[in-house]
Model the fold of this input.
Amino acid sequence: MALDPAPTTFERLRVLAAIAATGTIAGAARMLDYTPSAVSQHLAALEREAGTALAERSNRGVELTAVGRRLAASGTDLLDEVRSAFDEVAAAPSTTALRIAAFPTAISALLLPARERLEPTVRLTIVHAEPGDALRALVAREVDAAITDGLIDVEHGLHRALLAVEPIRLVVSSSRRVRRLEDCADARWVLGGATSRTGQAARQLCQAAGFEPDVIAETEDHHVTFDLIRAADAVSVLPALALTDVPDGIRAVTTLDLNLHRRIELVTRPRLASTPTIQTLERTLRP
Done:
């Protein structure tokens, strides 16, 4: 049966995209504020319209077939294109709304200043999310763009634009004298855990310098890190965005180059990347 581009079909494509993003009927229902039964009905109706199975159900959830994955990807592009078309033909809108997800330091150092510069032409709604969650929200169409730290793999054919490359610094108490990394061999360390690429890279640097860091805490929250540095005379590594307002008694060692960096990227869906609003946001976020 030929797919009929009726209004209901657009909604069914939105349901299929939500299933693709969450992997379960229940997850898609929560994302769209539907009942699981309504999601299942939309999926079944779309399969009838397409004339083929789009998903296979199992105890682990729902896995889209090859046809289902192609239709979900094309449907997401189509929904973005329709939104862009309406944005372009809207009668002289005074404000364009944009939802963007970002991690805490990017919110304070990048998005809040950008929001002041963009208003009232662009109204930013900021969603606090760590990079992995931000990308999932972007794929699920819960947000229009995401700022990531470049340490999370970007998949799903998303468009990415480099905003900055920031150094990662050794951070110590002001009383600690450091000229080289080996000077911190006897220190207690605060580093990211097993899933933190920065934390793992710092461990490798310490090992290359001839010592195993004595890690007393694992966190990527820079506020917690600052507290631990002061309380335990610990040392850590933090990216530059986290060092814009360092508390008294703590300093970043700028004379020591760890040769560690992270990329700050603006990620969006391909159909939105060329829109004037996203391009304006990208220019505003760049230093």
